[in-house]
Design a protein that fits this description.
The complex is a heterotetramer, with 2 copies of chain A (332 residues) and 2 copies of chain B (328 residues). Chain A has helices spanning 23-30, 48-56, 71-78, 99-107, 120-132, 200-206, 220-224, 260-269, 273-283, 287-294, 296-309; strands at residues 36-39, 62-65, 68-69, 82-87, 89-90, 114-117, 136-139, 155-158, 166-171, 177-185, 191-192, 209-217, 230-232, 239-242. Chain A is an alpha/beta fold and 332 residues long. Chain A folds into 2 domains: 17-119 and 175-307, 3-Layer(aba) Sandwich (Glutaconate Coenzyme A-transferase), CATH 3.40.1080.10; 136-171, no CATH class. In chain A, a hairpin with a 7-residue loop joins strand 8 and strand 9 (166-171). Chain B is an alpha/beta fold. In chain B, helix 6 links the parallel strand 13 (238-243) and strand 14. Chain B is globular and about 50 Å long. The chains are: A alpha/beta (332), B alpha/beta (328). Chains in contact: A-B, A-C, A-D, B-C, C-D.
Chain lengths: 332, 328, 332, 328
């Protein structure tokens, strides 16, 4: 994990208020070779487009400091971008294993991937500690198992309050960059999430820099209509890029369903190194081109599917009462 | 404010109680002779049904992807209509209309009571808020300690023989859920005298160890495989309790490395009913979990999407029927 | 604070699914003499009706284990219900001090009130630790000050990870009862909060038992329409009572504005012991009677005021699209 | 999906930037000769204005109730339209149309960008996310250490001479905000050589102490009173920087127990402008903060509510004007 203490704590909010940029520029500006990176989502709302852009820009030596990761990690590992992974789970889908990850860990192809395991709650807590800027947060998870045995960053202590209970101390994670994909964001960086949040609110806070990619860039006034949904506030955000279908082939709650056949094909083609390299050749391209190649009809179908199962109330439906008297209806 | 606040005693909303009771399982798909043993079922389907039976009505069930989710959804649509599903990605109380592809599958958001973050779910889990968890594993030992991290063999953690996916939530669930069900394939190499790496804590070295460590949960209560169902005795040792139809105790022993404890009376695992099998096949229309992984490659995108949507419709309409009672 | 470890961790969800009850019964059943109690809100969404019911039922020997508290604590202290307060701030409003609290602490009237101070973040963290069931959570707040000097429950240690930094360990609070007032709740106990949450989600989790009072009892299906707002889930709730205007004279975001003249009058009359006892005589009564005495017109005016400034999107407005094709509009 | 996703470069929404700049303060109430010194203003109003000037445009300002909130709102409606207010109860970025009665006043929810919980606000605060905090106190010493807990006198913490409200968020703000402004009444008994209880950490025993403790914030940067404005030198000692019109350095020394350090050139605090005073009186229509506490007792409920609503309307219309630019 990154160093526990840094003197370069998050700066004051950016001098400029408009943080919008392109995906290309955001990755170029904030992800450098050797960076530690955390990604949002978890097999749903993952910043897949951003990860593909990292591969396209041929970043190397990355540490992925994260929780459970699916296709985006497997692709980056296969493409040689990643040296180390700290997290809780790797795979590519329901059944398919992370073939590139296994190949890297077991066989050193394309090069060795160092693994440091935590549990899922351990992941949450390392970002919570990072967000709080404290060295650690204690938990009972992972006690009695081999997880702390093989992860030197975890400490087991006896409760200083004298209960006699052991506690596992999960050290703070402070990734250089967090990349989070959300449904809506304004140019200031107020990111709103519908549905589950996973660890995204903590990752954005724990990271030195945060990139938001969003399905839809909205006005600040639209954000004000549902302030409860702003799980990532402007002051923790450095760059905002509008990236429609930025989670494809995964789900984006309330927007589109996962493209199962697409990532099952990935699972198949990533079993063999040559096939995987062909897959890279085929699908690593600017996001606009990727989306065009997936095709309008297919994307529209995925939207329709999601619309059939999840139709959240519109965020912006703060219809003011025609007159104040309407407030009286509250209890009628 | 044209009328006084209602007295608190004549509140109209009623609790989310299905009219179905646990004693008389539902037959939501209107299957003919629903409670009869199914004529054709796969071992995987038997496994899913056996695991579903571990969830009691009204419980909170911490479920994952794949088989674990299948069992949870099956329980909710059959004998445990008032159980509430918990997914670590942040959903509670949802009514998934089908199998999920991932832990944040938006199917898990369908009609959820709570959409929150992972940290909050595990905070609640650590406090002991959840009744039963269902996990999978790559290896297990006689005390229910599981390995989902790495089959190390004669190699090292850093470069193991087989790198497995990792803990995910399995460590946290086994630590803190009141009880945990482990679903596995019955294989001698997996039922091992010594797991290569303890990912999730079973009954550990001795029966009091979990309490010494301050765990909220009681640890594994059952292991359900494609051959048998196991429990644990007071020592925390695994005990064979039932074998599936056609499987002998000797068959099971063959697939276990240690000297297996066996219950005085080993029963035969209840076979899936016609209703249960029909429901499972509705939950998993693309046969993603139940019957292999090839179907989705054999069909075009369009056929996949149509199949999925048809089955969603079917399950959604069942849910609408069953909840109509609490919204009148 | 309460003992750090208990063997009686929260039980499995209640066998019965319908947790609705009356305010009277909820207080009678869960608040016993000597209980430790945490209250929700913070000069807004406070469970004022519940606190008045505690006074009406003449509970004694209570510990209020809490954060910043306003009128409800002052009333309970003046009425002799409270022996100890652990928290961050006491007063009754913007300007008025907590006269009963001062009288109890400084002069022992009606009897001595023991105070144990923490900072506001300290309050949040003691409930976070309680919710997590860990003995403590570390913070940098309160270091270098007299707060830990006078609160023996706080420990200052050196970072076990070797940074050399001191850390204040905030011990877990596990109150016997949390009483939280929210806008909407269903009979299962799924409590939805609009606007700010303060520490309510943590208090409900940290407490052994939780009582929800709500402005409006709604169906479970209505809860499903905005799952992001369910900050307190059913499995942490033991009793639900519908108590309209349960926060009067304070605000309830999106429902009614604070009755400033009412609590300013309280501030005035609580300066003198005799006047306060008369105030008690006048206003401690069943909530229905209290509301009737405040008067329909006045309450309607407070609703109208709030309606002019805060008109949140209706929670239940999850209008399904007429047909699935509507989902396509998302990106048009 | 009838059209391609928009290229990310021609996004329509624009940032929440007022057209007013910090150089040319706004005059939202259309006051005549807005930048002239106000003819009549109270000392409390001068204090509020002086504190408001401590907030720069574009900053995040962690504010409380009463004077602190008044200053924050004033700054937002005048020289710092892009500052964002943070309230510990869980609101960020709101545009309160008036004075608040409490930290959860629903006026603080008006047009908020974020509605969250207190723990999350303080998590962000501890990480150093906020630029400037404004707090009050009962006592202060020469190093800016404040007491809001108890005036103990010759008694004890358990039974002090005067029990004050307690820390509230003041300890957390002073620990972690980049810089903190303290607002107080200038009284000899309050500006003391030795505070009875350190509630919030100023510059502590020596200049490096805060860094040794690992604090994210730089501590108190200014103390604003009804007589003067103080800063702090590199040693962490309070320095008199300006006195209000009509107040001499000697007058201030009279109200400070220690040997006060005084800047080489003590300035006269800028007087409030006509625009600023008009705005303050619009923010506090019931004179709750600015001019005593009696008004609200003298009027009936109906007059109070009408006054408040009138002024809300006025401030809301200003906000609507100023944000119209970003919603076109």
């Amino acid at each position: 994990m990154t160093e526990l203490f840094t003197d370069d704590r998050p700066d004051a909010p950016a001098e400029t208020y408009d943080k919008t940029t392109t995906l290309e520029d955001a990755i170029a500006d904030y992800v450098t070779d050797g960076s530690s990176v955390a990604f949002g989502g978890m097999g749903g709302r993952d910043p897949e487009a951003a990860a593909r852009e990292i591969v396209r820009q041929e970043k190397t030596g990355l540490t992925v400091l994260d929780d459970a990761r699916t296709t985006l990690l497997d692709i980056m590992v296969g493409a040689g971008c990643v040296d180390e992974y700290v997290g809780s789970w790797v795979g590519t889908s329901l059944i398919s294993q992370g073939h590139n990850i296994r190949n890297a860990v077991e066989n050193g192809v394309p090069h060795h991937l160092e693994m440091r395991d935590v549990s899922n709650f351990g992941s949450s807590l390392m970002f919570l500690a990072g967000a709080m800027d404290v060295p650690f947060v204690p938990t009972r998870s992972m006690l009695g198992t081999d997880i702390p045995e093989h992860n030197d960053d975890l400490e087991v202590i006896e409760d200083p309050f004298g209960s006699g209970d052991p506690l596992a101390l999960v050290p703070a994670a402070r990734p250089d960059v967090a990349i989070i994909h959300v449904q809506r964001c304004d140019p200031l960086g107020n990111a709103q999430i519908r549905g589950n949040v996973v660890n995204d609110h903590l990752k954005a806070r724990a990271a030195e820099k945060t990139i938001i990619t969003c399905e839809e860039l909205v006005t600040t006034d639209e954000i004000r209509e549902a302030p409860e949904l702003t799980r990532i506030p402007f002051y923790t955000v450095d760059a905002v890029a509008e990236v429609p279908f930025g989670s494809h082939p995964w789900h984006c709650y309330g927007r589109y369903y996962a493209d199962l056949p697409f990532y099952r094909e990935y699972g198949l083609r990533s079993q063999d190194r040559e096939d995987f390299l062909e897959w890279l050749e085929e699908w690593i391209c600017p996001h606009e081109e990727y989306i065009e190649r997936i095709g309008e009809d297919r994307l529209a179908t995925l939207e329709r599917m999601e619309g059939e199962i999840n139709t959240p109330a519109p965020e912006g439906d703060r219809t003011p009462p025609a007159d104040a008297a309407n407030a009286e209806e509250t209890h009628e | 404010m044209s009328e006084q606040p209602k007295p608190t005693t004549d509140a109209e909303p009623t609790a989310d109680q299905s009219t179905d009771t646990a004693d008389e399982p539902a037959n939501p798909l209107d299957v003919d002779r629903p409670h009869e043993t199914a004529a054709d079922y796969t071992t995987t389907e038997l496994l899913a049904v056996a695991a579903a039976h571990e969830i009691d009505d009204g419980e909170t069930a911490f479920i994952g992807v794949g088989m674990s989710l299948m069992s949870g959804v099956l329980a909710k649509y059959t004998h445990a209509p008032n159980c509430q599903l918990v997914a670590e990605s942040g959903y509670v109380g949802s009514v998934p209309p089908g199998v999920v592809q991932s832990i944040s599958d938006s199917v898990l958001g369908v009609d959820a009571l709570v959409a929150t973050d992972q940290c909050e779910i595990f905070v609640d889990n650590q406090r002991g808020a959840f009744d039963v968890g269902i996990i999978g594993a790559g290896q297990i030992d006689s005390r229910g300690n599981t390995n989902s991290t790495a089959v190390i063999g004669d190699q090292t953690y850093d470069q193991p023989k087989v790198r497995l996916p990792g803990s995910g939530g399995s460590n946290d669930i086994m630590t803190s859920c009141d009880r945990t069900v482990v679903m596995m394939r019955q294989q001698r190499r997996a039922f091992t005298t010594d797991v290569d790496y303890v990912t999730a804590p079973g009954h550990l070295e001795h029966a009091d160890r979990r309490e010494e460590l301050g765990f909220a949960g009681d640890g594994p209560c059952a292991v359900v495989t494609d051959m048998a169902v196991f429990g644990f005795d007071d020592d925390g040792e695994m005990v064979l309790e039932s074998t599936h139809p056609g499987v002998s105790v000797a068959d099971v022993r063959e697939e276990v490395q240690w000297d297996l404890r066996v219950a005085d009376e080993v029963e035969t695992t209840a076979e899936p009913t016609r209703s249960e099998v029909a429901m499972l096949r509705t939950i998993d229309p693309a046969d993603v979990v139940l019957r292999g992984t090839d179907y989705v490659y054999e069909v075009e995108f369009d056929e996949w999407t149509e199949t999925v949507r048809e089955h969603w419709d079917e399950l959604r309409s069942i849910h609408d029927d069953s909840t109509r009672h609490d919204t009148q």
